[in-house]
Design a protein that fits this description.
It is built from 15 helices and five strands. By secondary structure, it is mainly α. It folds into two domains: about 270 residues, Orthogonal Bundle (Fic-like fold), CATH 1.10.3290; about 70 residues, Arc Repressor Mutant, subunit A (Orthogonal Bundle). The protein is globular, with a radius of gyration of 22 Å. The termini are far apart.
Length: about 350
């Protein structure tokens, strides 16, 4: 059976308390259906962007939003497919939550992987051979997972452990989710798509345990902001071989890292929700904005004026595209333009400063 080796450190304990404070605060806030929908849409875009970016996807968050609405980019078919598939996986998890699913199953995990890799909510088979994780630059072996014949049993043991812990309720839910993330990456049951599947699995477990936070958080951004810390935390132990130390390694540092990341993500949601609560007139205003306009609001929180170049960089689009957007936003009353050509700069129209 699976018996993870870990201790709950003082830092982990503090993070768990912070998570509870944020969770309760967000749960008690009166958030309208319209605003909740908007926040969930933003969280899904953020999660998709950063989770696929970790695996090398080149699309910016603004471009991910375009793909989500059916847009396309030349010579980015693979990146587009990864983004679309991730949204399909998120939809599958939403369906499980809607069905009031209480237990995790290996079929659910295999179906999440099927969404990620094939864009279809159908279970995929585990790998049928050995795979090796190598360093991208040197080609040196970073990790040798267990043999493929062991994978089905190891995955069954992981699922059984998760369900037992959820039922008994002795371990905090964030600890269960974090350990499941680690162990899935350790087993590495597939040739490809393990990272994305592990992060989606984490979110599913949090939802099953009552820590879904209404679907308006993103753990992936925390990982992506400093990938080296993410990789260092999950690369536990000195051994590169599952059977020579990895399986028995003390994973306390990973548990601490995971809990701190979850506390950070939940705190961001709490602050965002509290700001929105203090502005009762903004729900109707937000519904009038598209995703790019919502994103550019953050830039105006830090700067009164923005140039076309700065808006292009913030949205991850070309200056020509940014100029087209700005012209449309000026015509629509979203922005005010000051100056022409090289001296051109933009200011948020007074009506929309209520959202800052």
């Amino acid at each position: 059976m699976f018996h993870p080796n870990f201790q709950i450190s003082a830092k982990s304990t503090q993070a768990l308390m912070d998570i509870e404070v944020s969770r309760q605060a967000v749960s008690n806030l009166p958030v309208s259906i319209q605003l909740l929908t908007s926040l969930r849409e933003s969280a899904r875009l953020t999660s998709t962007h950063y989770s696929t970016q970790i695996e090398g996807n080149r699309l910016t968050e603004a471009e991910v939003a375009i793909v989500a609405k059916g847009g396309t980019f030349p010579n980015r078919k693979r990146d587009e497919a990864e983004v679309k598939n991730y949204f399909i996986a998120l939809n599958y998890i939403d369906d499980l939550i809607t069905q009031d699913t209480r237990e995790l199953s290996t079929e659910m995990i295999q179906t999440i992987h099927g969404c990620v890799m094939n864009g279809k909510p159908k279970p995929t088979s585990y790998r049928d051979g050995q795979n090796v994780i190598r360093e991208s630059g040197s080609g040196n072996i970073i990790y040798l997972p267990p043999e493929w014949r062991e994978v089905p049993q190891l995955m069954t043991e992981l699922v059984d452990w998760v369900n037992t812990q959820l039922e008994e309720g002795e371990l905090p839910a964030p600890i269960i989710a974090g350990i499941a993330h680690y162990q899935f990456a350790t087993i590495h049951p597939y040739y490809d798509g393990n990272g994305r599947t592990a992060r989606l699995l984490t979110n599913l477990i949090l939802h099953l345990s009552g820590y879904g936070l209404k679907g308006i958080y993103s753990l992936e951004e925390y990982y992506a902001r400093n990938l080296q810390n993410y990789y260092s935390a999950i690369s536990v132990g000195t051994s590169h071989n599952y059977h020579e130390g990895r399986a028995e390694s003390d994973i306390s540092n990973w548990v601490e890292y995971f809990c701190q990341g979850m506390a950070d993500a939940f705190a961001n949601v709490r602050l965002q929700a509290e700001k929105l609560k203090s502005k009762p007139d903004q729900t109707s205003l937000l519904r009038e904005l598209d995703m790019r306009q919502k994103r550019i609001l953050n830039a105006f929180r830090e700067n009164r004026y923005l140039t076309t170049k700065e808006i292009a960089e913030y949205l991850g689009v070309t200056p020509r595209t940014a100029l087209t957007l700005c012209n449309a936003w000026v015509d629509g009353g979203f922005l005010l333009q000051h100056g022409e050509r090289r001296s051109r700069r933009y200011e948020l129209a007074e009506e929309w400063t209520k959202l800052l």
